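Intended use. Records like the one below are meant for learning the mapping from a protein sequence to its folded structure. Do not use them to infer anything beyond what is encoded.
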Amino acid sequence: MAWRFRKSVKIIPGVRLNFSSKGVSTSIGIRGAGVNFSGRGVYGYASIPGTGISYRERLDKPGASPSSYVPEESPVPSFTSDLPDNIISVDVQQITSQDMQGIKDLILSTHEQRNSIAKSIREVRLASFGSKFKLACSYAFLLGFFNKKLSESFKGDIASQKEILEALKEQEKNSFVKLEVEFDPTIQAKFDRMQNAFKVMAGSHKIWDRTSSYYHDRKKTRSAASRIVTRKQTYIGLKTIPDIMTDYEPFFFKNINGADLYFYPSFMIAYRSRKELAVVGYDELKFLFSPTRFVETESVPKDSKVIEYTWAKVNKNGSRDKRFKGNYQIPIARYGNIELRSNTGLNEQYEFSNYEAAEEFAYAFLDYQKTIINLKALQAV
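Structure written out for the chain above:
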C-alpha cells in the first residue's frame, strides 16, 4: 500500500510589533487575517487581498482594560527596602499578563506544531525504510514470491515518501514564531541605547542571582551586615527562545532558582521549558534598581569599588570589637542591584559587580519602558 499523508499542515503565523509616535501594537497573523493587540483592545480582522473587502471585530470585552504599572516621571532608579526572605517567583504558569495571553498561546501552539511535524517525519522515514527493505527483497526473490509489478509499486512508494519528507522538512523549517519589529527613529535610538548598555553590563566581572535575603541579630553575630544574603554566580547575554525567530536577540538572564528571563522589545518571557513559560508586558513589569553596600567576604571583583572597610566582629557603633583575637578587616564593596517584580508574581533579583554599567542599563531600560507604556496609554485614549 502506498504511504498516505495529510499535507494540510498549518504554518504558524508571525507576530509583528509596531513602535511609532502613534502607539505600539502587536499583531498575530498572516496576510489577510489575524489578531491585533493594542491599547484600544483586541481585534480580529480578515480581508480578501486585491478586492477591498475586509472585516474587523472586537474580541475582548469593551471597557475591560489590563492592569498597568506606570513608573515615575523621570527614569530615576528606584529602591525598595521591603525585601522578602526568599527571592523567587511564583509558578511560571501563573505570571502571564492578561493582555499577553495571546502571545503565550501562539508560542505554545508553535511548539505543538513542531512536535507534530517531527513525529510525522519519523513516521515517513520509518515507512520509507520499510519500502526500501521490501524493494530489496523483491530484487532478491523476484522469481519466487514477488513480481516486477510489485517492485515498481515499491519504487513509487519510495519516491512519494521522499517528496513528502522534503515537504515536511520545509514545513518544520518554517514553523516558528517570526517576531518582526518596526521602530520609529526616536524609539530606535532609545532601544539602541538600552541594548548597548546591556552588552556592557553583561561584561561585568561577576553577576549574581540573589536567592534569599533576611535580617539577622547583629548584636549576637557582631557583624557589620544587617542582612544575610544568599547569592549564586550566574550570567546574562543575548539569546533567543526556541520556536521564536527575530532580528533582535532578546536580553537573557540566567535564573538559578526558576524560569530564565528573556527581554523582547515590548514584553518579557519567563521561560522554564517549551511547555512552561509566561509573558509579562512592560506595563506590568516593575523594574527597580539600587546601589548595594555589600560586606564582601570573598575577593572583590576587579570592576568593583571598595567604598570603605569594616571588621569581621564589630561593636554597635561599627568600631572594631577588641574582645575577638585576630579580628580582621573586611572590604565593603558597592554593587548594582536589579529587582524585577510584577503583580502576577514575578520576583527576581540580580547583583552586578560593575555598578556603573548596571546603573546605565537601569536608566536606559526605564527610559525605554516609560516610552512604551506612554505609547500604549496614548492608544487607549
